[in-house]
Amino acid sequence: MRRYFSFRFFFFSFFFFVLCFTKEMSFAQHRQSERPNVLILYTDDLGYGDLSCYGAEAISTPHIDWLARHGLKFTNAHCTAATCTPSRYSIISGRYAWRKQGTNILPGTANLIIDTNITTLPKVFQRAGYFTGAIGKWHLGLGDKEPIDWNRKIIPGPKQVGFDYSFIFPATLDRVPTVFLEDQKVVGLDTSDPIEVSYRHAFPDELTGKDHPELLKMKYDPRQGHDGHIVDGISRIGFMEGGTRAQWSDEAIGYTLNSKVIGFIDSSLKMHKPFFLYYAIHDIHVPRMPATVFKGESDLGYRGDAILEMDHTVGYILQQLKLRHILDNTLIIFSSDNGPVLNDGYLDQAVETAQKENYHPAGVLRGGKYSVLEGGTRIPFMVYWHGRIKPHTVSNAMVSQIDLMASFAAMLHEKLPPDEFTDSRDYFSTFMGKSDKSRNFIVEQPAGRGGLAIVKDGWKYITPRKGPVLMQDVNIETGNSLEDQLYDLKDDIREEHDLSDKYPGKTAELKALLKKVEAESAP
Fold first, then answer.
1. With helix as H, strand as E and coil as C, how does 471-501 read?
2. Burial of 214 by CB count in 10 Å (0-12 exposed, 13-18 middle, 19+ buried)?
3. Which residues contact 440 (CB under 8 A, 6 or more apart)?
4. Check: CATH 3.10.20.310 for 443-519?
5. Which CATH architecture does the domain made up of 36-189+247-428 adopt?
6. What is the pLDDT of residues 201-226, one digit of tens each?
7. Measured at the alpha carbon of residue 332, what is the angle toward residues 64 and 334, in degrees to the nearest 5?
8. 250: helix, coil or strand?
């Protein structure tokens, strides 16, 4: 009898242990599934028609197409502005850039434009226990004093807005300073060769594209100011002295950034922490100088070759995630900061090859980079998460990158401060393909200030704005007009038929809504 009791006690104790262990494992697995790694692949100047999964025929992007095929592709997704700095400001801060002065395209000498005291997208992930990183293009300013001292650690920067690790270039590839910063210090700087940067005047004995065109391996368009400091045989905007050993080689940028991405991911694995990575890919912004292996591989000049390099980058990152057995638990977003441009300062055959191939980087849309028309802000956008997003899904819901902060906060059960102003809203169910709910409205910003547009229920209103109808130097329609404009995007995606006179009530309704939105203010 005593033996039977002992056996029964042992059996039930073992059963209870297994039950508790199973529940614990189940809870851990559930917790892990609710806290995936999150990777944002943010490209530069990629248009709505630049990918084969969005209809491009003159070029093939198989790795990005894989994301679309195995995840969710949006047809009506938007960045907030038709240029890079304001779009990047919005995705990181969750606020429209036009609310704040000094958020247009920044020079490389600009100070940080994101308030370090506000909630940001990376800070949301930090609060949830993530290891956060920013790699690639920054273009949001650095430091809080002018001039910036490039020869020591620059504060504030990415760390102060929520990134635990950063490996960035300060502005754009066509602007000085042409160096990388790792955790806000210039990489490879020789202290005996200190850096100075100016956007006003060349330094004594500095070689510039304007004075030494014979040194250039890529010609620049004289209308667009790319005639300054020469690095790697390419002249840039602005002037720079010193830092010779620290300056990058354009053809090696992709390899360098990809290596840092993998290093960051491995660091997160060693720490046993999920990661959030904002990888701002350098392609396909000018100067387009892809690695040699990609040169001549497309029929669209160096711009097409840069698209192939960008697609290779996506494929490489996917492969490395798979090798580390974490692809299935990584939520990936792929998108672009604004619409496309062919000639943006350098004569790299982008215009000629596009004409030859009858290639339209904005697809069916009018406008492009700098424009208030749909080609300026309607961009490729896809989301992948194995087991959580149904493959082969296409959504026509209208979404905006500005909502990523609030949506991820909802996913992570992190509440945004109730007394803190933000334009970001929770559309996580839409981003996951669980809902067809569109954003209530979106506001689109062209280059510069003024001339905003608002879209609601398929109707688009554009405010009057002075300026040319066509930007001659880049050959892009701006959407500028001295009169109100109204378009029915449901039937007129190309915005060819202004209906403001036919529907004055709808024009007035959207005009009033835009004024109401503009009247809101962020502290």
1. ECCCCEECCCCCCCEEEECCCCCCCCCCCCC
2. exposed
3. 425, 456
4. no
5. 3-Layer(aba) Sandwich (3.40)
6. 999 999 999 999 999 999 999 999 99
7. 45
8. helix
